[in-house]
Amino acid sequence: MTVKIDTSYEYALAMDKKDALATFREEFHLPSKSIYLDGNSLGLMSKRAEQSLFQLINSWKHLQIDGWTQGESPWFFLSEHLGDLMAPIVGANSDEVVVTGSTTVNIHQLISSFYKPHGNKTKIIATELDFPTDIYVLQSQLQLHGYNPDEHLVRIKADSQGLINEEDIISAMHDDIALIFLPTVLYRSGQLLDIERLTQEAHKRDIIIGFDACHSAGVIPHAFSKWGIDFALWCNYKYLNGGPGAVASLYVNRRHFGKVPGLTGWYSSTKEKQFDMEHTLTIEQTSRAYQLGTPHIFSLATLIGSLELFREATMEEVYKKSRNLTRYMMDLIQHELHDMGFSIHNPDDDARRGGHVSLKHAEAVRITKALKDHQITPDFRAPDIIRLAPVAFYTSFAEVWKTVQTLKSIMQNKSYEKYNSNRNVVA
After folding, report:
1. Tell me, what's the pLDDT at 303?
2. What's the pLDDT score for residue 422?
3. pLDDT at res. 3
4. How far apart are alpha carbons 249 and 227 in whole angstroms?
5. 75 is in an annotated binding site
6. Which of 223, 264, 277, 281 has the fewest beta carbons closer than 10 A?
7. What's the pLDDT score for residue 5?
8. Does residue 394 form part of some domain?
9. CATH number of the domain residue 367 falls in
């Protein structure tokens, strides 16, 4: 199906002139003579993130061990401070968020804390489209409780369009469900689930529900506290631009404060008691209790600068531009590539889409390689998905236009045929 839009380059340039976030491009180290559309896997380095990293390197250099409690950003309190800055991005109270751990570690922490099987309530709901690490953790946690994952992990199947239907999730909320763990946005298709509705339906049935927000944090505004979700976690190296290996984040609703986490370490302690070196843990009474060990200071440092940008731009403006960019890209694809074997794999509804466009094509591997050689960085997901993420902070409408025109040229000239179909180790 074709759509009627202005496909001219001049229109793209006009959109860039009206862009309220255009000046933020200057805040990033942009690749020269190339277009970067892989911010849903690894965001670009901002100049402020670079500066805040050097700031903490200098604090180590000049303050030595006193850097834990002195300087502009004392290390001992850094995870909590960043939690305060992160909270507005996901719509949370500041004491409900802490920047700690990695995605997988945080999933283990939160599932071990909230999965409390009893009686016939022993099963966990996930989906068959979840990112693998989520499923591995759930399987591991079930096995630790002595349950067979094949029987106790309920995976909601995708519909004929490759999407997850919320009605199917709700229909699976039986009396034997102890916990639900879902992605906010599915990593392949970019489908945004109705977080508020699913939370309400779970709580009606006395079921704990948590979310993996790796593909929505920093691109879609959330209201975790208002919606009342029980817990969530997300990485900070995608849309939040914290850099490779950036420390992740977790959220715990205030009604769960005071409970002892499933996993504890000395950073689960109240700050006042942490260095008393007692063998009796005095548990922190906020989300900060879910920390384990000493924070990775230099992997936290970049977020100081990165989160400044979000405070200035606001999540509302970031989301507005992201939605406009993906809408524009989808319309161009439908108009320019409609007879070239592509299908758009993410929801068409702007309100149900995350921050990337998911293109399906039988030759996805080879087309991805051709794009790379044309100085465009996309992302491939097996077996046949090309993900294109125009990021609000640093992608222009002109770059979206150029990307679609490059795809059109690659397909018309069949230049992708010179590449093999073996994907790289890191796709």
Report:
1. 98
2. 86
3. 53
4. 18
5. no
6. 277
7. 86
8. yes
9. 3.90.1150.10
Distance CA 107, CA 28 (A): 31
> Is position 7 annotated in a ligand binding site?
no
Task: Report yes or no on 420 lying in a domain.
Answer: no
Q: Is 266 annotated as a binding residue?
A: yes
Q: Write out pLDDT tens, residues 146-178.
A: 999 999 999 999 998 899 999 999 999 999 999
Q: How far apart are CA 207 and CA 59, in angstroms?
A: 46
CA distance 129 to 122: 22
Q: What is the pLDDT of residue 125?
A: 98
Q: How many CB atoms lie within 10 A of CB 365?
A: 22
Report whether 96 contacts 287 (CB < 8 A).
yes
**Cα 281 to Cα 268: distance, rounded to the nearest angstrom:** 8
Asked if residue 212 belongs to a known ligand binding site, the reply is yes
Whole-angstrom distance, CA of residue 224 vs CA of residue 217:
11
- Intervals of the chain under pLDDT 50: 1-2
> Which helix (H) or strand (E) covers residue 68, if one does?
none
Confirm whether residue 276 is marked as ligand binding: no
CATH number of the domain bearing residue 68: 3.40.640.10
Instruction: Give the total number of structural domains in the chain.
Output: 2
DSSP 3-state of 163: coil
- First-residue to last-residue Cα distance in the chain: 30
Residues in the chain: 427
Question: What does each C-alpha distance from 17 to 238, 355, 403 come to in angstroms?
Answer: 26, 22, 19
The response to whether 133 counts as a known ligand-binding position is: yes
Indicate the residue type of 348. Answer: D
pLDDT reported for residue 159: 94
CA gap 346, 88 in Å, rounded: 27
Give how far Cα 77 sits from Cα of 83, 119, 249, Å: 10, 41, 15
Is 130 known to sit in a ligand binding site?
no
Is residue 422 a part of any domain in this protein?
no
As a whole number of angstroms, the distance between CA 270 and CA 80 comes to: 12
pLDDT of residue 1: 45
Which structural domain range is residue 186 located in? 51-312
The annotation status of 77 as a binding-site residue, yes or no, is no
**Is 103 annotated among the ligand-binding residues?**
yes
